[in-house]
Amino acid sequence: MKRTCAIFAYILIVLQTILIFGSWIVSAAIPDSQIRPLIGAGGLRWFFSSFAQDMASPLLVYIILLTLTVNVFVNSGLIELFSQNHKINMQKRFALNVVLVELCTFIVLIVLLTAIPHAVLLSVTGELFPSSFSSGLIPMLCLLVTIMSISYGLVSGSLRGFYDIWNSITTGSNYLPSVCFVYILLLQLVSSLAYVLGN
To answer: Is the peptide bond before 130 cis (omega within 30 degrees of 0)?
Structure first.
């Protein structure tokens, strides 16, 4: 994963560099063009004033949520149930039953909040997409998997208290910085391209 992110980052940096100097050359060679250079007073003002706003996207929140969810899913031992060679003892079987009850409860709640007339999570026009449900679908699923993973870990014995729960969420896969860095480079390239083209 880190190697893939490194390759993408390298490509994005090269493209960003080409865009920076390319926009400057084109705007200098063809003054009447609509191309705005990134090198110059206007480009620098745009970069410093809009960087944080350009980065602020639901996608960044989703990346962080998914990373934390994957961490607890793996560290709780719940992922081991998908291994063909994994043997389930009585304690883990009971923990799995608890998880299934939570999943069924979640499904029932979602049906009640979306399927009945004038349901809370439907849009004003009664549509499911787009609606409050569709907007919060990824955070909702992340919360569900996190709760099920913690429950499974506590009941099965792989998590023994708050400290273990904390560690299961915050430690594990360390690809979040790599993914976030690629995200920043990609968003910056898209924003820079939009600025250069005058959009």
So the answer is: yes
**Ranges in the chain, pLDDT < 50:** none
**Long-range contacts of residues 98-104, Cβ cutoff 8 Å, at least 24 apart:** 98/151, 98/152, 98/155, 99/148, 99/151, 99/152, 102/144, 102/147, 102/148, 102/151, 103/144, 103/148
Q: Where are the domains of the chain?
A: 1-197
pLDDT, averaged across the chain: 89
CA torsion through residues 77, 81, 85, 87, sign = positive
How far, in Å, CA of 181 to CA of 30, rounded?
Answer: 34
| Contacts with 10 (C-beta within 8 Å, 6 or more apart), sequence order | none
Task: Report residue 56 as tokens.
Answer: 């602020």
pTM: 0.76
Over residues 44-73, the pLDDT tens digits come to 999 999 998 888 888 888 988 998 899 899
